Amino acid sequence: MIKIREWLSVNLIPKQIKIGKMNKYILIFFSLFLSINTFGQNIQIRSGFPKQNAFVNEVFEFKIVSNKTFTCNNPDFGELAQYKQPLTGRNSKTSIVNNQLISIEEYSITYYLVGKEAKRFNVGNIKIEVENKSFDTKATFITLTKRPKINKSNLGNTDYFVELNSNKTELYQGEHFLLSLKIYSLNKPAQIQKAEFAKSNKYIGTILNSNNSNVNIGEEIINNKKFYTAEIIRQVCETTETGRITIGPGFVSTIFSRGFMNRYAKEQFSNELVINVKPLPNTPENYSGLVGNITLETNLNRTEIKTGEALDFQLIIKGQGNLLGINTPEIQTPTSFQKITPDKVDNTKIGVNGSSGQLIYNYVFIPSDTGVYKIPSVEFVYFNSQSQTFETASTESYQIKVNKGVKVDNLEKHSELDKSSHINNTDIHFLSLTNEETFNKDQVFGFSVKHICLLASPFILLIGFTFFKKKMNSSDKIIKRQFKEELAKSNIHISNAKEHAHKNNNMALKELSFALQNQFQKKYQLAQSEMNFEKMNSKLKANNFDDSVISLFKSTWQSIEMFQYAPVTSGKIDELIKDSESIINSMNEK
Amino acid sequence: MKIKNYLFIIFFFFGHLCMAQSDFSQAETAYKNNNFAEAKSIYLQLIEKGTHSFSLYYNLGNTYLKQNEIGNAIWAYQNANKISPDHKDVIHNINYINSEYQLTTDLQNAWYYQFLYGKSINFWTYSSIITAFLLALFLLYNKLKPIKKHQLLKSLITILLSLILILTIWFSNSHKDYLLDENYGVCTEQISIVFSSPVKDQELFELKEGQTFELIEDKDGWVNIKFDRKEGWIEKSNIKLY
What is the ipTM score, two decimals? Predict the structure, then answer.
């Protein structure tokens, strides 16, 4: 330091300047040096809240801006909670300074924070990293105050607020109440982006209308100002505790339009509510836990039954209240009745008064012993929130006569059959195999060679028959067949002659004559006019018959002609028949 | 000699049937006594011998189900469904499995399955043969007694019989393929890995026991399958085809 001072005093500082003032110059010099050094890096960082005051549960911003890209990991905002993911941004500005175009770029991270208490929240130094160097932002703070209760007489300068309402502030345990979120705005809302109730384990809620896009917008004049209003969301709730219960603020994000294509969002928490949940007075032992107003109905499919048969018993709970919290009612049945877990049919719906409709329980009882039994009336004790008293809904009792029927010894003797045993006993049917037809896969012969042969066989037979018939119908064959048929006629005449012989010899001779004529006529195609001895004899000779055959024909023909006019002996007629037969056979053989 | 042969065949057939019935009764008794393992063993022996019937597969399915062998039970029920499609007991038990084990097993029980395959194994084969004979007889009658009247009616009858013949032949072939071919499969192991190829190179997805799939190819102890629009190879030892 002394050396620097000496060097400065020798070289830079004018001699007129007293040495006592040296320290001041050195400090100025160093300040300048450090400033130049810092700005030489050209890194600018600024951070903080855009406003120093906000309301409890209001979403406000914390912004870090730099002219260089930077990162910020897990910043610590103390007791302030981050409402949603931070938003990174980049902004570019261009301006002309001393006739030079200067471009400035800014990088930012915006954090959305919310505080739950009315107090001052300090935010310490937040570490950020710029070009691999670590920097700290300035510590700052924000003061949160309780939002003044906004109502129609105390609006102040508010142009937009969200109101949480309940239809009941005093209610009994188990009783339903309705929460609703309503927005009031001087500008007409364009769309509801998000609406939700605070979550709590002190009550259970069911949203009634979750469709934010279908909101009816109304108008209300408050303090001479026209507010657009809309009930955004409703929730039916049931408390799980008694005492004073605080319902946390709901949240609504609304989108507004500002001119054409310019939209902006307003995110707002509502007020809190406190409701007083009173315990039920002097709760009876058999209280069902239901608060509301109900009636009971029962149905029984029959009052006379056989052992082993199923008895269908139906219990219907109708009305309104916290129906969904009801446990399956226990039906008191005789010990010999087996009970199967009942089916529950839920025909209820949630409305502004809680759930209403009917719950149907279908029970199945199977009696195992004969006798007359009673199913007692079903009683249901509930708290009527209107009359604020405990009431009892009850049904009629039934008398059941059980006759002897199927033995049910093999059924398991427990009160409620579970699903698997139910399946074991009834659902998987075991088939009897008596007279069951079995087969071997080889027996399946569709489209096999055997099948094709059997299919083809009638057609093959048909084709064969057609072919045969066609062949039979050809001309030569017809002639031959006709010839054979005609020749056969000669034998018929011979047979006739044999029949007539010894009885009517003339007829027998005529038949023999016909036989020979027919033979010659057909064999040698002789005309009727040619049927004389000479012509016939010449035909025999022309066909080279033996002389014996020719002479036999000659003698036979002449004898036939002769004996037609003279008596003939029995021996002769037999001889003529024999000879004629012999001639015909000889001719056929040729 | 011929009569002796016929008698032998008849006795052999009925003897075989009686033997099968005796085994069935034995299995039924074992089942009723909750001896499912013995019942299953008898049913499987019968199937190995080449005996098939709806009840055999159905009861085998029940024994498998009792022993919690879901994949095998589905295989048996699917075979029972092939023999007698749209059987209410099979549908019920498959639905039971689906609901109990979160499966989506589907049965081929559309109306045409019942129509085509709900008959006895050779119904369509015999129908086609009978139709062939009827058609041949009708043609023969026309040949022998050519009547010029009612030509249109005769043509219609001929066309109708021909059409029935073609359809019954087609149905017969289809029924045979349906009974004998194995186009689907079911996973019988608790978890089976499906690979991209039969060399276990890349695991594609897993099959749970009881999940059914379509068969694409059967090759060297591996099968190429299609499941839920995905294809892959699975070891044949982990599945059963039906």
Answer: 0.79
